[in-house]
Amino acid sequence: MREPFPIQPNTSTLRSLFKNCQNGLINPHSLNHNLKGNPTLIKKLQLSDILRSHEGCVNTIEWDSEGRLLVSGSDDRHIAIWNLAGKELTKFPTEHDGNIFAAKFMNNCNNSKIVSGAADGKVFVYQWRGTSTGAAEKIREWKDQSRRVKQVVLNPGNANTFFSCSENGFIIQYDDRADMNSIVQEEQHGVKSIAVNPVNHNYLAAGVAEEGIKLYDIRNTVKAVMTFASAITTTRAESHTSTYIEFNSTGTKLLANCQAEGIYVFDAVPGSEREPRFLERMDKLLKYTFSKDDLDPEHSCLEETPYDEEKHVTREYHMLGNYLKAIEGYSSVIHKIENALLYDPTNAALKGDLAILLQTRADCIAKRDYKSDLMDATRDYIRSMELFPNNYQAHAGIIHALEGMQQYAKAKKWNAAFVERFEYTGETILKHPDKKSLTKPVNIRTDIKQARFLGGNDEFIVAGSDCGHMFIWDSGNGNIVKLLKADNKILNCAAPHPTAPLIASSGIENVIKFWSPFEDCNESTPKLIPEDSDIWQRRDDISNMEEIVAQGQLNQSEPNMIHINNVEIFIRLAQLRNSRPDAFETCRQS
């Protein structure tokens, strides 16, 4: 992965970036990476334009490969084309008999062709410019899917081919040079999302309902190359659907927005040397034989570190019960120590600090008690014990987390080991088995919600929510860096521009919104603000993040309220695990 060009403090705005590029202070080839991944610019994102034309929910928005044009599809069964300035270039009716869920510019055709998929099970290719009549013309049609087509993805290795997935379980490959197509894979359950690896074009990932995510080599799809499972699927034998999946720019990670759960990032490199699976790591620790030389991590820590002030502030949040801010603080310090260990991997003091921070962050995650939190806490406890097996607090944390996940047999084994290893005098540290279950599913409103990588080197992740907010996380430490009220009801789509710090978004409202960085509120003139300034400024909710997230968790117990989707803010760095509706007039609830 190419490293981003270093940016000095005085180059944190669009104006200064371009000026320094013109003066030769920034390499022009690195400018795009600066623009897309500059955290200062991301934090300055504000509403910059509202695109009005559609008369129904806007279910799909996609930029062309160079970012000059945006295509949108809607419940109104029309496709619209917009330029970078937000001007509508054309809008035309399609022959779809249902809501449009997918629309993309095809490659190597000067953006003149658009492929679309909809609730009617049909896939079309339209030529929208350069036709003899001057109007958009349908040039290809396939009616192979008996149920809704949820996604269409291009094949980076062949400009003429693309794939679709449907709720009937079929993944189909098309070639726009012919009317024929081929079935790549047939699943027993519906497929709501697919993605092609941008580096190895033979790898195609599929989000299969009730089965998790599967990675196939399209040359031989008899058996999946890899399978991925979320924390809930792994621990509770529950099955959920990935409403959107996407590879990072290097094809090594797979991002998944899992319905009723959260956002996960999986390692996605088949055949490479991988860490032992999660349960194998737990079993190894359980069988570990202690020696008198094993130290507690506190005996290895440095008395003073460069992170002391940050840790002190974080501990205050922890003591006050502000677990969201505490988790963010611990995650930030953990990320810094992990980077330091890359240069000094044998440093025992750094390892001691890391072990304690992992265990402490796990305590906060478990107390926060969002869905999947107990599994994520267990992962941190395991990592802490792998660094220092003598960490009795991490060991105790594992026992409580296992019991909370209703893994009673495993909890008893870990409890017995705790009594033996640490000469515990009590009979048990297990809580009563009637501990409350995990919180209810929260992503229940729509099944087209996306999660996308953002930045030249995938520095950020952006996703919508059932509360209408657009969340932007730092993909390194999982902390929220921006929170914007992007839709008055539900935000489904977020499309980062391929070269600039610009995000297009859409949802239940009939509009598309552009989000661009401003220096500050005073920099923007009424000409630049597409709505009253008091409304515009209230869209930035980063200062109200804790209240919004807490309210979303509270709403889970109210079945008739709109729930916040994917507010489990800590990005799930998940381990690998091997392991018929009709067309409708409004956005579907799942």
Give an overview in words.
By secondary structure, this protein is of the alpha+beta class. Helices cover 26% and strands 27% of the residues. It folds into three domains: 11-36, no CATH class; 44-273 and 442-574, 7 Propeller (Methylamine Dehydrogenase, Chain H), CATH 2.130.10; 294-421, Alpha Horseshoe (Serine Threonine Protein Phosphatase 5, Tetratricopeptide repeat), CATH 1.25.40.10. It has 13 helices and 28 strands. The two termini are 37 Å apart. Residues 1-12, 234-238, 426-443, 521-527 and 553-587 have low confidence and may be disordered.
Question: How are the SSEs placed, and which strands pair?
Answer:
Blueprint lengths: L13 H9 L5 H10 L1 H5 L1 E8 L5 E6 L5 E6 L3 E6 L4 E6 L6 E6 L7 E6 L4 E5 L9 E6 L6 E6 L6 E6 L3 E6 L5 E6 L4 E6 L6 E6 L3 E6 L8 E3 L2 H6 L5 E6 L5 E6 L4 E5 L10 H9 L21 H12 L3 H21 L4 H21 L4 H15 L4 H13 L3 H14 L29 E4 L5 E4 L5 E6 L5 E6 L5 E6 L6 E5 L3 E7 L15 H6 L6 H10 L17 E3 L16
Parallel strand pairs: 20-28
Antiparallel strand pairs: 1-27, 2-3, 3-4, 4-5, 6-7, 7-8, 8-9, 10-11, 11-12, 12-13, 14-15, 15-16, 16-17, 18-19, 19-20, 21-22, 22-23, 23-24, 25-26, 26-27
Helix pairs in contact: 1-2, 5-9, 6-7, 7-8, 8-9, 8-10, 9-10, 10-11
